[in-house]
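Its record is set out here:
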Amino acid sequence: MTRWLITGASGMLGQDLGAELAGEEVTALTHADLDITDSAAVAAAVGGHDVVVNLAAFTRVDDAETEVDAATAVNATGAGNLAAASRAAGAKFIQLSTDYVFDGRATTPYAEDAPLNPLSVYGRSKAEGERLAVAAHPTGTVVLRTAWLYGAHGDNFVAAMLRLAAAHPQVSVLTDQRGQPTWTVDLARRIVDVVKANAPAGIYHATNSGAASRFEFAREIFALAGLDPSRVVPAEGDSFVRPAPRPAYSVLGHDRWAAVGLPPMRPWQDALSAAAAAGMLGHAS
């Protein structure tokens, strides 16, 4: 039986991955259990495992602009520590990364080997985490870039839309950010698929297929929650000024899955419908 280690196991994706691995031999560690910036602690924790999945991250994108050292320690140094320990233990290492490693100036989906040009501290720290992980364990590191995650076990865009719907007759949502809404259940399944397929080291884009603006995403959420989608009204980026810049276009290409014999993940609309059927949108009012 494959022995799995998951860091960041209490997060939205971590909980879904844990559920997907029910019946497997899994060590699920939270930040309280393991500080991934401590290389000695990481080495001790990783020993004896076959697969290490790093879901621990500093994800407070706006806070990272002023907490540079903390973001870099977790997202970059921590990833490097885990990759090095995985190599020493003979384990496959899976590093979760982000669309924020790109600048958002493209007009067609970013290929897996597209040049990186992050706009924010968060994006730069995650890009450095990719680099350090691959450098530490070049033959055993799989980088999965994902984006626009939502799920039942954490705060996210879907949950925010439902809260706003309950409190306001109209909700203003950006039309000028385009990306790929991705359900954490689908991403958890893809992580397992990657291991079962013995995917070679390298970079893959693990997002649901297709693309949407935040506005289009919000309208679909309202519709599936039994709410009137016309309550979602368009807004542009200058209406929501935030400390960290976001990539305006972060649609990711999925060509590399063909080399592994896996299809791209299903369209985002199908995934959101499945999330609704699973009860994730059921508490709307």
Notes: The first strand starts at residue 3 and ends at 7.
